[in-house]
Amino acid sequence: MKKIFSVILIVILVFVGAVVNVISEEILDHRLSVSLDDRTEFINSNDDSSKVLIELDMNGISYGQELLWKANTTGTNYEESAVVYYDGVAYIGSCSTHGDGHDKLFAVDTTTGDILWSKFIGPGYVGPVIDNDRIYIGTDSHGYDPTNEYIFCINRSDGTVLWSRNIYGGIAESIQYDKDKIYFTSDIIYALDKDDGAINWTYRMDTYSVTKPILKDNAFFTATSGGMMYKIDIEDGSRIWDAVLSDNSWDNSITTDGKGHIFLAIYYDNTMNAYDEDTGALLWSYELHDGSLSFNAYHNNVIFISDTSGYVYALNSSSGALLWEKKIGNTIDISSPTLSGGLLFIGTRDFEEGAFFALNETTGDILWKYPVGASVTAPPSIVDGMMLCGTDSWNMYAFDFGIGTGDWLLHRYDSSNTAFSSNGLTEWQFVSASCNTVNDITTCSVTNTYDHDVTDVKLKLSDGVNANWYDISGHLLKSESNYYMIEDLSSLSTLTIVISTDQVHHPGKPTISGSSSGKIGKEYTYVVSAVDPDGSDLSYYIDWGDGSFSGWTGTISSGESLNVSHTWNEKGIYIIKAKAKNTEGIESEWSDPLEVSMPKSKPLPLFLEAHYPFIFRFFSLIYSI
Fold first, then answer.
1. What is the mean pLDDT of residues 403-412?
2. What domains does the chain contain, in order, with CATH numbers?
């Protein structure tokens, strides 16, 4: 008997909505077991969007993503602007508040990455906001030129400035709008008329606000770097309440759950907090590992936040209890959790180690990592099956994430001001491995349902376990190895790999015999047989040459003959062949081909052609009918 270890390689893929669960079942002992590596990377090689480099763990699913394009003229060396999207066009700001930048607003074609137009506006932090055919964006010089800072209203189609207004001290955070007015903050809360920028009302706060505000139920909420939070009536600008915070708020956001709670992280005391929407009273507080410069996101009674030590958190929105935390890098800056399709997207500010990440929203497990060689400071946006985000390398990236749409007009936030897109992703394209163990030999079918070829698909066993890798015909691909690399897997294709810790023998090449000619519409019987070196029972698969196949027959003993029958219904010459498969799933090579002619031809006497050519042609015609 062969000495063979068994494996854990049965995988059931459950795909409900856009949430993926991978379930593995242990077969025999675990010495050849496989574990899911949560550090899997999927790296686009040399910016060739036709192929994607994916590492696939044996017991799971590998998420496909394609780099559509990157536009290297839309970034800055410190990119904080989120991307917003409307009707096939992405809009992003490029600032010079922390170093060189274009100081422009760009419109980019999301199909090609081409720049449609750009408009010089000056330095600023905040991304644009789209209101139908208008774009609102503010500038901020970081204190270098406070008299030359503006709010702009820009035509979305061509970049024409419709109106602008000087705002002393600049606008460091997002602009909100309703039917008639736009709202934003410096050290003053402004409400301006949307048509001409005329001031409707103002409210002076204790100091400057660097917190993303929220517009909800006829009220405007914001917090300041002086440690105050405000709720203002948007009709007349009167104060509804103010509340003293535990410390100063900086580069954070206010988010709501629609249930009377608002949420705010406070950078200077490392906390994530919940407050009563009606009174501003503190409901709970959770201490993070470090200060947070992240916007928070809410979904399904969970608050998601990151901190500057590289941790991402999921907290129960009612109690503040920790559900999970995951350290994904050394630093996370302004890049913030963005949720869609059961996944959380975020980037790290780790300079040459900077990368985009996708985490499982429920568990925090890292599903993929895409290194970009530069810091990711901006929050990702998800829309129309794409992830759009700028980086600190002067590049804006667009990835294809499958089928889906989103509504991210408010600085990547949806209409409820949360970083969640309920319809952002409805399907993921992927590479999967489905494995089965029979008689101590494991057969894995690796399928690429992604719409591009993938390269270097890595099948990996558990650490310290080596095996032999074979193709379906039993030919050795790699011996005594912990992994096997499929160099190229075409779109919509499946490749079968056989794994064993001992030598695998494939059945011998079958023989197929029977009539080489016949009449159409008549059934003919053929005899196939093969020998398995291990004496395993065999089944057979016949290609009848007319586009039809027998399918795998029932099993018979090795060396015994099997009768198979077929009828051809059209005239022609057909090449038939057979292959065998043993009970362990190992297939043989194809038999030598057998040529079959339909209909049967009858030879005519040669003297007819020489002496009576007319009669020869007549009978030749008759025989060919």
1. 49
2. 10-64+428-500 (2.60.40.1180), 66-421 (2.130.10.10), 511-598 (2.60.40.10)
* Closest C-alpha among 322, 325, 376, 378 to residue 350: 376
pTM over 0.70: no
Give 66-69 contacts, CB < 8 A, sequence gap 24+: 66/399, 66/400, 66/450, 66/452, 67/397, 67/398, 67/399, 67/400, 68/110, 68/113, 68/386, 68/398, 68/399, 68/400, 69/112, 69/113, 69/397, 69/398
Angstrom distance (rounded) from CA 553 to CA 563: 10
The one-letter amino acid code at 534 reads D
Lowest mean pLDDT among 12-21, 102-111, 144-153, 347-356: 12-21
CB 326 within 8 A of CB 286: no
Query: In whole angstroms, what separates CA 373 from the centre of its chain?
Result: 19
Percent of the chain at pLDDT > 90 equals 43
Over range 602-606, report the average pLDDT.
54
Q: What's the mean pLDDT when you consider all of the chain?
A: 81
3-state secondary structure of 619: helix
Quick one: how far is CA 211 from the chain centroid? Answer: 30
> For 237-273, what is the HEC assignment?
CCEEEEEECCCCCCCEEEEECCCCEEEEEEHHHCEEE
Cβ-in-10-Å burial (0-12, 13-18, 19+) of 218 comes to: exposed
**Residue whose token pair is 């005594």:** 480
pLDDT beyond 70 at 220: yes
Question: Given pLDDT bands bounded at 50, 70 and 90, which one contains residue 514?
Answer: very high
353: its two tokens? 């180690």
